[in-house]
Amino acid sequence: MRLTPKISCIAALTVAVVAGASTAASALGPTASQVDGSITAAGSTCTWTNATASANPPTALTIDRATVNSSVSCGGGASATLNNNPTVTFDDAAGLATSDLIDITVKQSIVTCSYRAANVGWARSGSTRTYQNKAFTATKSSGSFLCPGSISAPAGSASLNFH
User: What are phi and psi of 155, to 5 degrees?
Assistant: First the structure.
């Protein structure tokens, strides 16, 4: 059994879900308390819809992990679980937001990997409610020896849209 492609897929999907689990928004237009997200990494895509926020942006808010987990879907036979409720703060004048901590577990085949990323930054796309992630690194918090010790997400590899 050749595990290298599967480990690459796990790393890619972990980046996808770590980036996607974070949430950001703008005060432009009507406020919103739900967010959809999508990311494609290494040919695999993770998406979720209608995750619930505890407040309307730009007020600091918490994303409910249960509402992310209930709709997250990843290609390539992987599954993903958000392990915490990320808090997001906003600097609306600068068009930025920051997620405090993202704790995610990804399973591909028999390999399970957990990662954490702190202070993930997001930049607003123009005057829309869409934000894209800034580059960040997530560190392995548990899992198989086959899991990479850390994973990197390039800037713009994930986007979030409040509605």
Answer: -55, 140
Prediction pTM value = 0.80
At residue 63, the 3 state secondary structure works out as strand
C-alpha distance from residue 94 to each of 6, 30, 76 (Å): 39, 18, 37
Q: Quote the distance between the C-alpha of residue 116 and its chain's center.
A: 11
Instruction: Decide if 82 contacts 66 (C-beta within 8 A).
Output: no
Structure token pair of residue 135: 């580059």
How many C-beta atoms surround the C-beta of residue 94 within 10 A?
9
Average pLDDT over every residue of 4-8: 46
- Alpha-carbon span 48 to 39, nearest angstrom: 10
Beta carbons of 47 and 14 less than 8 angstroms apart: no
Instruction: Look at the alpha carbons of 27, 161, 115, 43 in this order and tell me if their dihedral is positive or negative.
Output: negative
Q: By three-state DSSP, how is residue 20 classified? A: helix
Contact 20, 38 (CB under 8 A): yes
Chain position carrying tokens 């702190």: 118
Neighbouring CB atoms inside 10 A of 68's CB total 26
As given in the structure block, the two tokens for residue 151 are: 């994973």
With cut-offs at 50, 70 and 90, classify the pLDDT of residue 41: low
